[in-house]
Amino acid sequence: MRPSAQERTLHNHRMKPIRGVFFDLYGTLLVYGDMKKAWADWLHQFYISVTDLGLTLSEEEFAKKCDRFFGKAEPSPAGQNLTVFEKRIKSFCNSLEIEVCDKDVTAIADLTAGKWQESIELDQDAVPVLKELKKSKVIGLVSNFDHPPHVRRYLSEYGMNHLFETIVISGEVGVKKPDPDIFKPAFEATGLVPREVVYVGDADVDIDAANAAGMIPLLIKRQNTDRNSLDIDNDSPDARISDISQTGRQCETISSLRELLRLLPDM
User: Is residue 64 located within the same domain as residue 126?
Assistant: First the structure.
């Protein structure tokens, strides 16, 4: 049987045998559902939470104030133990002259992120594929996300923590894709070098970061997937998947996680 285009590309890219597979999380291992509903639920929960702290605006007025909530520069208010998402919440409340303590900020972050998560589900192939790949490959997770406790909580709920040799979250390391430096902690933790690792992601920032790091990128491009995602992980909500990334580098695509078992046989 002749190798597929993807298999030929992997062969041509490879300077060393593929020893590791790193994954993006949202849109890759987790599948977006109705993200317009997710945004509305997030916003409503945020409004209720801040109203409980003394907000007097109507929900419509509040929604207007939230415009570009995730698109603004990262704030640096007091409270060094706060996540980036929590800092955004605290800065936003301060702008509305709502006094909020760090404990309240954390509660709001957890509640709103949880509401958003309700419209997202684990790909049914994720755990089986990860378990199978783990038999012969080093598996890692490298994700952009501003509220790392949320990611770690859901990885635990999904029973996925033990499947990863390394878990790198942008909000913990202070670097975001497309900056390739986000992969450095994963390489250090696993002892792998970039050309030994395939990175699977669903967006331009994933492909651009992997290319810049010298890894082998694979774009997962599912059918009928709602890409109107909330920018809680600092990927542009207006970004769209393309076979050619923003840097102009072409990458191979897969339509399901299960395809990885064919593309990455035991070596």
Answer: no
Number of neighbouring beta carbons within 10 Å of residue 246 = 13
Number of domains in the chain: 2
pTM score, whole prediction: 0.86
The domain in which residue 53 lies consists of 35-117
Angle CA(215)–CA(246)–CA(183) in degrees, nearest 5? Answer: 30
Residue with tokens 């998560």: 117
Check residue 240 and give its pLDDT: 33
Span 13-31, pLDDT tens digits: 544 689 999 999 999 999 9
Strand 216-220 and strand 197-201: the pairing is parallel
Q: Are strands 252-254 and 166-169 parallel, antiparallel or unpaired?
A: unpaired
* Claim to verify: residue 177 and residue 154 sit in the same structural domain: yes
pLDDT digits (tens, 9 = 90+) for 218-233: 999 997 655 443 444 4
> 153 to each of 117, 143, 150, how far by Cα in Å?
11, 14, 5
What is the tens place of the pLDDT at every residue in 34-55? Answer: 999 999 999 999 999 999 999 9
CB atoms within 10 A of CB 238: 9
Domain boundary (93, 117, 141) is at 117
Q: Which residue has the tokens 């790198």?
A: 168
Taking the C-alpha atoms of residue 252 and residue 219, their distance in angstroms, rounded to an integer, is 6
**DSSP-assigned states of every residue in 143-186:** E--S-HHHHHHHHHHTT-GGG-SEEEEHHHHT--TTSGGGGHHH
- Residue of 182, 192, 186 whose CA lies nearest to 212: 182
**In a shared domain, residues 18 and 84:** no
